[in-house]
């Protein structure tokens, strides 16, 4: 497959500024999450690798991606998709080595693409040398690197997160003959951040990657760094103190780098991770928006979205939300009520294999029944709601999932590049693939692939690219305020994004059926709505409610163009002196400035008026 040629090496004047010149670059960026294992295989071993990713950077540049987010590619036994790290400063050999990463990073930066990586701060794998030393030598230098206890009764108020696999947050270790603490899987012991040596070791690992030139971190599972009796062990003050310290270290030595906090909490709790005046993490994911988009679409009412946006506190000017349509592996259902969770399972996970923990492990296209109008509506919401959007690899072409694969592998299958062998992902024997290619009649690689959609100007891929380009032309999407515009029609969600003179009105129909809506836009009286994808002017806004009709699951993005101030026409000699006729006569020297110019004055008498062409002279 021949990849598209990017429009220009610098990606156009509207791209993000060069690295090192804009500390707020992340506020206008479009992020793209991509599994190294699942994107492209360069050495025919059936596993994606860093050199394979390097080969596909032209495609990502063409798409308009500003920043890549790489989930863990560190050394790991891979019992939790790489989030069980056994060495923070080593690349898993099947993905390549540090030199491969350096070359990939340099190539991405050459194309104006930034790179952030996952950093699993809360826990390690039980195969990490720190844990092995801690369990075998309790009195040694690593003996206190993890949280140990003689019984499993401590921190009883902390919830169990993986309720489908774990019955306790404590696990007995037969070597040390004590219990170790873990908030996730029992093979992922939590680090003991009460120990200053642990804090320094973690910061040293962060420095290692920052020194290589990465643009930031997604900090995994940070609400659980510390434990305290009588609390649920989440969002504790000492957690915030440590993150502030990390931010100071990063700002002091590594400008323009971003810390993205992964805290699956309610907005009122998550906002604390921005710190005072934005001195903690610059970004945080807005988890509760995600399920409410799906809830609103299925109920065909805007209220789930409206309510969660109304509950979202203001954040510092130098901070930003990160928003997504799924938390990479799944549609997460932690931040909903039990009743809402049951409703979502009934609507979107009709087969038990689609459930994962308390979420839904499905890709976007199957969740939305592969309906193109609905897919476009959801992506339009992703690109226009407050925050920086995060795309998941393959969603730009509508890739499907495989619910017959175990755990969350059903949404981690190889990227589908072509209809050829192994979907163009690898030249290895098909049985060597790390996961089988999707061969579904609808979502299989023979039908759904990049090559086919590059040739179709009406494809999902081409549409996503156009919307990213439109978004880039309007900084209000990343920097602007958000104000919902109510209406009597509950199926329509309308809001205005405003940043200086850049004002965009977004109108979204959450119903399957065409809908009318009347919007109170009186404060924009005299403005002209210009539809952004086709630059079509709509009727000027007046004092009456503004009437629109939307197709089923349709949407509009309007630029609201300010009215042009009327220019007063000059009169008398002033008119004569400023008219084109006067200019030419003065230039020729045929008249002086003091003379009246016949036929060119608005103050002519009846005798001066020339005869009409159609009447008597």
UniProtKB/TrEMBL annotation:
Positions of transmembrane segments: none
The reaction(s) this protein catalyses: D-maltose = alpha,alpha-trehalose
UniProt keywords, alphabetically: Calcium, Isomerase, Metal-binding, Transferase
Region of interest: Disordered: 592-617
Span of domain Glycosyl hydrolase family 13 catalytic: 33-432
Superkingdom per UniProt: Bacteria
GO biological process: carbohydrate metabolic process
GO molecular function: maltose alpha-D-glucosyltransferase activity; metal ion binding; transferase activity
E.C. no: 5.4.99.16
Enzyme class: isomerase
One Pfam family this sequence matches: Malt_amylase_C
Family statement drawn from the similarity comment of this UniProt entry: Belongs to the glycosyl hydrolase 13 family. TreS subfamily.
Protein name according to UniProt: maltose alpha-D-glucosyltransferase
């Amino acid at each position: 497959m021949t990849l598209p040629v990017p429009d220009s090496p610098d990606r156009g004047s509207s791209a993000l500024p060069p690295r090192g010149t804009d500390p707020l670059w992340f506020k206008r960026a479009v992020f793209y999450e991509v599994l190294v294992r699942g994107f492209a295989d360069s050495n025919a071993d059936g596993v994606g690798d860093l050199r394979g990713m390097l080969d596909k950077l032209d495609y990502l540049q063409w798409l308009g991606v500003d920043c890549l987010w790489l989930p863990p590619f560190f050394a790991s036994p891979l019992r939790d998709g790489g989030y069980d790290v056994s060495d923070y400063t080593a690349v898993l050999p099947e993905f390549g080595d540090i030199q491969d990463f350096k070359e990939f990073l340099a190539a991405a930066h050459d194309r104006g693409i930034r790179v952030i990586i996952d950093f699993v701060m809360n826990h390690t794998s039980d195969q990490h040398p720190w844990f092995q030393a801690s369990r075998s030598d309790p009195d040694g230098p690593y003996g206190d690197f993890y949280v140990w206890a003689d019984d499993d009764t401590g921190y009883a108020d902390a919830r169990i997160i993986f309720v489908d696999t774990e019955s306790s947050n404590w696990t007995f270790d037969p070597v040390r003959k004590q219990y170790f603490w873990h908030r996730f899987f029992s093979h992922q012991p939590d680090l003991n951040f009460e120990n200053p040596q642990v804090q320094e070791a973690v910061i040293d690992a962060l420095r290692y990657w920052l020194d290589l030139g990465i643009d930031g971190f997604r900090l995994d599972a940070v609400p659980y760094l510390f434990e305290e009796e009588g609390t649920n062990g989440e969002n504790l003050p000492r957690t915030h103190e440590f993150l502030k310290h990390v931010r100071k270290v990063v700002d002091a030595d590594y400008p323009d780098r971003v810390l993205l906090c992964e805290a699956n909490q309610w907005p009122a709790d998550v906002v604390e991770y921005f710190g005072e005046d934005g001195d903690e993490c610059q970004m945080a994911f807005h988890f509760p928006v995600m399920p409410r988009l799906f809830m609103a679409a299925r109920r065909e009412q805007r209220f789930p979205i409206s309510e969660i946006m109304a509950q979202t506190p203001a954040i510092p000017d130098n901070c930003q939300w990160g928003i997504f349509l799924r938390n990479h592996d799944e549609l997460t259902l932690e931040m909903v009520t039990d009743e809402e969770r049951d409703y979502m399972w009934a609507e979107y996970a009709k087969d038990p294999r689609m459930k994962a923990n308390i979420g839904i492990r499905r890709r976007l296209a199957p969740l939305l029944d592969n309906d193109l109008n609905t897919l476009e509506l959801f992506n339009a919401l992703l690109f226009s709601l407050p925050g920086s959007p995060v795309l998941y690899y393959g969603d730009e072409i509508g890739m499907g999932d495989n619910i017959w694969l175990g755990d969350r592998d059903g949404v981690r299958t190889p990227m589908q590049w072509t209809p050829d062998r192994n979907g163009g992902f690898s030249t290895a024997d098909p049985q060597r693939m790390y996961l089988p290619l999707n061969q579904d009649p609808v979502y299989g690689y023979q039908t759904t692939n990049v090559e086919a959609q590059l040739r179709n100007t009406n494809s999902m891929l081409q549409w996503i690219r156009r919307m990213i380009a439109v978004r880039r032309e309007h900084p209000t999407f990343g920097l602007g305020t958000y104000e919902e515009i109510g209406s009597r029609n509950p199926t329509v969600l309308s809001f205005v994004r405003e940043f200086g003179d850049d004002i965009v009105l977004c109108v979204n129909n959450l119903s399957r059926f065409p809908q009318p809506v009347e919007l109170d836009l009186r404060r924009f009286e005299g403005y002209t709505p210009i539809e952004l994808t086709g630059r079509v002017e709509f009727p000027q806004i007046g004092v009456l409610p503004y009437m629109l009709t939307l197709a089923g699951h349709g949407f509009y993005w309007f630029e609201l163009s300010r009215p042009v101030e009327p220019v007063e026409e000059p009169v008398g000699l002033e008119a004569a002196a400023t008219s084109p006729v006067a200019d030419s006569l003065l230039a020729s020297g045929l008249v002086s400035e003091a003379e009246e110019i016949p036929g060119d004055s608005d103050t002519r008498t009846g005798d001066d008026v020339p005869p009409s062409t159609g009447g008597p002279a």
